[in-house]
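ok so I'm stuck.
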Amino acid sequence: MGALFAGLKDIVKSLPWKTWLGIFVVGWLFGWFVFGWGIAPVKWTDAAPQHLEPSWRADYLRMVIESYVYNGNVPLAQTRYQGLGDDGPKVLAQVEQDPGYLRPEDVARFKQEVVGIAPATGAPAEGAAAQQGGRSWTALFGLCLVVLVGVAAVGLLFMVRKKAGAPKTAETAGGVQPLIAEGGPAPISSYRTTYTLGDDYFDESFSIDTASGEFLGEAGLSISEASEGQPKHVRAFEVWLFDKSDIRTETAIFCTPEAYADEATRQRLEAKGRVLAAAPGQSLTLETEKLQLEAFITECEFDADDAGQFFQKLTVEFRVYQRVPAEEEGPLTAAGGDLPA
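replied:
not stuck anymore, here's the structure
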């Protein structure tokens, strides 16, 4: 189960927000048209006579009058007539003008003996029709609500991604030096995240976009190795960088000094990437075809139990730069264009 969860997490982490938006739209269209109209369409049942097509309502009333002429059952005729709802008088006037196979005197008798004493409102059939209409409106309202919630969720995700990927001014923590020379290009994205003991599902990521909004990739920090139980005792974190241009994810590991000193543990972690012992001021660089990530630790605290050393707190600052192809001149560039010489 843990391997399945880890695989799903990797998939979620590797896909950009635009892909998830496309998945949502395709799923919504499938649910609306294929499932809602083809597989399980809405079926109307128990419709009242007033919902019939106008010419059929007249035929219905002619049959009601014909039945009354033969059986003389006034309550039954009233109930059947009330099924036409507010359109009853209009349909009756239409039948009076065109009685069809009925005798005019039978229509007049029905009007006098049945309609003349029929209750004006409160008809059972009309109530059933109103109830049916109420159910249809409730279903329509529920569907609209689901669509609105989905659109709002996508919009919120877009805003969060946009805010996370927008260029920011890098914050320099005390005692930590940038990995580039002073006066170099500004990062296209910077981010700072903090883990504290008890955050068992810690998994931070942020989008990397240009100033114009073009998606370049993603980066983040997630738990790589931890103990079972709660709270989990984390012994290693994974720093990762995804570049959409070459569909590659580069990783490196920050682990506790004790885990780094243990050769077996260090070799196991090296299968995921370069391993470094975490300490304030420790830094690493990850490079892909078009991106360079610099991550450095600004704060780091440890604790220990019978099983060994684990993280009490960890704060990591990220700075991401665009790389310039080797054939192009000049230093790394920011998202807005080339820096002045």
